[in-house]
Design brief:
- The protein has 339 residues and is an alpha+beta fold.
- It contains ten helices and 13 strands.
- Strands 1, 2, 3, 4, 5, 6, 7, 12 and 13 form a nine-stranded mixed β-sheet that branches. Strands 8-9-10-11 form a four-stranded antiparallel β-sheet, sandwiched between helices.
- The longest helix has 16 residues.
- The two termini are 15 Å apart.
- About 1% of the residues have low confidence.
């Protein structure tokens, strides 16, 4: 099996990439311009690998070469690769989604075997292990080699295919949550100072304002040895212009200030609520906007025949109260054999 290893910062988009993305159903964050912008702002080198069986691509993998030395802020200099570590496979820009696609009939063991060997050849003897995020128990069971498996936070999904409309969804919830959501929907509708707008593939949103707003969410998780990487303007600009991306802005009319922002990656069956940030309550923010935003995603998905809405990780109690179901996820580490 042949491997083509690409660095989106320096390698041009392959001719086959648009066709492969369409075949694999890879969302907006796999657009080559988005991958390149994300790679320039990452803490370590990001590599895209395509595995071929003959001339046919059978796997695509996004991974970071993670190890020592650790870069505190960002990695963008040639020759400063880690010299010892592991290949960390995760979704581009998010660890809440898988970082790979496999063609029908191709087992996960292709990644722990052919892909892992290709990474060792590319990165050297210091490439000791392969770490996969968002693995299911069924997938992990197909890997026969030595491995370490740990349960991670579940991913939450709303089964929108079960409801004919928003009202049916609301009636499936507890009385207290249903009453709370009705009040929130009414409060937003009656708030003349709040402008809520949705945008698709837009050029009208100032990405600088969005990035500043996203820092509210980043600051909640700040700390530790390595701070969270700040989003680059070019990354956000490229992402918001993708045809399958919906952006949602919540603006105070009286001040013109952006007080909340959300982003959703559309999909024929399972849209993903990718980003959400809102002004902290201590600074005058409204916590109820989070529930309003998710309620509108349910209403949209039901109305457009989507089967699920993926809500990502975290906020388990809140998502469960909205009728979301957990999907157990595993992280799996596999040592890379030296031969």
């Amino acid at each position: 099996m042949r491997a083509e290893i690409l660095d989106p910062r320096t390698d041009p988009e392959p001719d086959y990439w648009p066709r492969l993305r369409a075949t694999a159903g890879l969302r907006a964050d796999w657009d080559w311009r988005v991958l390149a912008a994300q790679a320039w702002g990452a803490r370590t080198i990001q590599l895209i690998t395509v595995l071929f069986d003959g001339d046919a691509p059978v796997a695509v993998v996004n991974a970071a070469w993670l190890g020592a030395p650790v870069h505190r802020f960002s990695f963008n200099a040639a020759g400063s690769r880690p010299w010892l570590g592991a290949v960390h496979v995760r979704g581009p820009g998010s660890g809440a989604v898988p970082g790979w696609w496999l063609a029908d009939g191709v087992p996960l063991s292709v990644l722990t075997d052919a892909y892992a060997r290709a990474m060792r050849r590319e990165l050297g003897a210091g490439c000791l292990a392969l770490v996969l995020r968002q693995v299911t128990a069924e997938q992990a069971a197909t890997v026969r080699s030595r491995k370490l498996v740990r349960v991670t936070e579940p991913v939450w999904r709303l089964p929108t295919h079960r409801w004919a409309d928003k009202e049916q969804w609301l009636m499936s919830l507890t009385r207290s949550r249903r009453s709370n959501l009705r009040g929130i929907l009414r409060k937003v509708a009656e708030n003349e100072d709040l402008e809520v707008r949705s945008h698709r593939a837009t050029e009208e949103i100032d990405e600088v304002r969005v990035i500043e707003a996203m820092r509210w969410n980043d600051d909640k998780y700040a700390g530790g040895i390595a701070p969270r990487i700040r989003v680059l303007n070019e990354y956000m600009r490229a992402l918001m212009r993708q045809p399958d991306v919906y952006s949602y802005t919540y603006t105070e009319r009286s001040t013109g200030q952006l007080i909340a922002f959300g982003m959703v990656f559309d999909h024929p069956t399972t849209p993903i609520v990718r980003s959400w940030t809102q002004r902290p309550a201590a600074e005058g923010g409204a916590k109820f906007l989070y529930f309003y935003h998710l309620a509108k995603q349910v209403e949209w998905a039901v109305g457009h025949g989507r089967e699920w809405v993926e809500l990502g990780k975290g906020k388990s109690a809140e998502k469960k109260s909205l009728g979301a179901e957990p999907s157990e996820q595993l992280a799996m580490a596999v040592p890379i054999r030296p031969w």
